[in-house]
Amino acid sequence: MLFRSQIEIDRDLLEVAMARTKSRVEPRTWQAFEMQALQGASGEEVAEEMGMSLSNVYVSRHRVQKMLKDELLALKQV
Fold first, then answer.
1. Rounded to two decimals, what is the model's pTM?
2. Whole-number mean pLDDT of the chain?
3. What's residue 76's pLDDT?
4. CA–CA separation, 21 vs 8, rounded Å?
5. Which residue in 40, 42, 68, 38 sits closest to 57, CA to CA?
6. pLDDT per residue as tens digits for the range 29-62
7. How far is CA 39 from the centre of its chain?
8. C-alpha dihedral sign at 10, 16, 19, 25
9. Burial class (CB in 10 A: 0-12, 13-18, 19+), 57
10. What distance in Å separates the CA atoms of residue 28 and residue 64, rounded to the nearest whole number?
11. Are 31 and 6 in contact (CB under 8 A)?
């Protein structure tokens, strides 16, 4: 019998949480989050490229991170 490692399980849960979260936010919000949190762009770079204020970039990131955290907690309770 094969067992999945905890790392594989966590990665799968994160992928599901990200897909659910992405479907619940505006594409622009997700793109700002993705550029900054996942691709490593600075807040200033994201703001300039997307035509957003720096504060909106940070708010977008915070909102998406909170939603991801909530999704992960919900998935782990199942």
1. 0.85
2. 94
3. 87
4. 20
5. 42
6. 999 999 999 999 999 999 999 999 999 999 999 9
7. 11
8. negative
9. buried
10. 11
11. no
What letter does residue 5 receive in the DSSP assignment?
-
Could you write out the three-class secondary structure of 24-43?
A: HCCHHHHHHHHHHHHCCCCH
CA distance 2 to 23: 32
Which residue's structure tokens are 């998406």?
A: 64
3-state secondary structure of 61: helix
Sign of CA dihedral 35, 40, 41, 44: positive
